[in-house]
Design a protein that fits this description.
alpha/beta, 12% strand, globular, binds nicotinamide-adenine-dinucleotide, binds 2-acetamido-2-deoxy-beta-D-glucopyranose
């Protein structure tokens, strides 16, 4: 039997596809926790539950439901609230997932701090704001951190735990244990930094891909294949550091002896940060839209396909972790 405790949830719901709060709720009930969903748009939290019910049912059918409870048991752990203080009652953990607007997050956390006990952990889903900004209006910042998920968190399990300069080690460790228990893959950042780790690495990849296309070296279609048929094959299972450690007979030191200078030469040839909205950007955008038109119908179909593929990959990774 799983112990059932209370995780509270502030906000989620996106009417379209987005939905970080909704996904978090599914992850936490999968782990057997009680979850209260709150949204400041009346009725929105209830709508989120309707959507979650549908998704849990579908996941149960394809045997991809997480945790040890069945879909109806997981649903029974969920409740929706239009009142913040009600949603927070009894909580030990709050995961905020409101709009990516600094002032909205700052004032929400100010309200939350007034309503919860002193040991409750305050966690933000923000992708682009550092903890020292998000929590600047909270008095006790030792209990605050960012837990940054990747969309969709149900299949892509990484969570970046990013401390405020004042975050207590205990708070980070408790969150790490909670995320592990619900089946996510948490990593610690030792300090806050703009973009955290994932988005910094992603920005480097976007920049060089963009430049290679803009400089007429490769097409949009083919640079995507470089990743999906090349680098990405390894990266779904091992990261860049292990990749290079395994790519020389005597490991990493040997690899750098052989290839370090070459990598430095390439890095020194990198051109400046691209202007993503210049005249030159138009032809890249057109090339992409010729492959996948940017209307709602084509984009949703590709998003659906992406999520199906991620589901298959999540299954494969689960088999290999046994
Ligand atoms: N979508 C992604 O890919 C992704 C990935 C990682 C992290 N995030 C982060 O998650 C957060 C939410 O993103 P999303 O894509 O789910 O956004 P969203 O627009 O889908 O959802 C935001 C929700 O917040 C509600 N809301 C707004 N102000 C509120 C308030 N004061 N109190 C309560 N509820 C309020 C809105 O009604 C809406 O339902 C953002 O900080 C974003 O950076 C998103
Ligand atoms: C879910 O599990 C509960 C408790 O074991 C059981 O009563 C219920 O019938 C199950 N529901 C389904 C749809 O399997
Ligand atoms: C601040 O938060 C920490 C971590 O939750 C807690 O242990 C401590 O008691 C809090 N301090 C005050 C003054 O509330």
């Amino acid at each position: 039997m799983l112990a059932v405790a209370n995780v509270y949830f502030v906000l989620c719901v996106r009417v379209f596809s987005g939905l970080i709060g909704r996904s978090w709720a599914m992850v936490f009930v999968g782990g057997g926790y009680r979850v209260k969903i709150y949204d400041n748009q009346p009725g929105q939290a209830a709508k989120a539950i309707t959507e979650i019910r549908k998704q849990l049912g579908e996941l149960e059918e394809v045997r991809m439901l997480r945790g040890e409870l069945n879909a109806s048991q997981q649903l029974a752990l969920l409740s929706s609230h239009d009142d913040l203080s009600q949603a927070l009652e009894g909580a030990f953990f709050v995961q905020e997932c409101v709009f990516e607007q600094l002032e909205v997050k700052q004032s929400l956390f100010q309200d939350i701090e007034r309503l919860v006990g002193k040991d409750v952990i305050l966690s933000s889903s923000t992708s682009c704001l550092v903890p020292s900004s998000v929590f600047s209006k909270v008095h006790n910042r030792s209990r605050c951190l960012v837990s940054h998920p990747v969309n969709p968190p149900y299949y892509v399990k990484l969570v970046e735990l990013v401390p405020h300069p004042e975050t207590a080690a205990m708070v980070l460790d408790t969150t790490h244990a909670l995320m592990t228990k619900v089946g996510q893959a948490p990593v610690y950042l030792k300090k806050e930094i703009d973009g955290f780790a994932l988005n910094r690495v992603q920005a480097a990849i976007i920049a060089e891909s963009w430049r290679l296309v803009q400089d007429g070296i490769i097409s949009v279609k083919d640079i995507d294949l470089v990743m999906s048929e090349g680098l990405g094959m390894r990266y779904a299972f091992i990261g860049p550091m292990e990749t290079i450690h395994l790519n020389a007979p005597e490991g990493l030191e040997d690899y750098m002896k052989r290839y370090g200078e070459g990598i430095r030469r390439i890095l020194n040839s990198f051109r400046p940060v691209p202007e993503f909205s210049s005249e030159g950007a138009k032809s890249i955008i057109n090339e992409m839209c010729d492959l996948i038109p940017n209307d709602k119908q084509h984009l949703s179909a590709r998003i659906e396909r992406r999520d199906q593929l991620l589901l298959g990959l999540a299954k494969l990774k689960k088999e290999h972790s046994k």
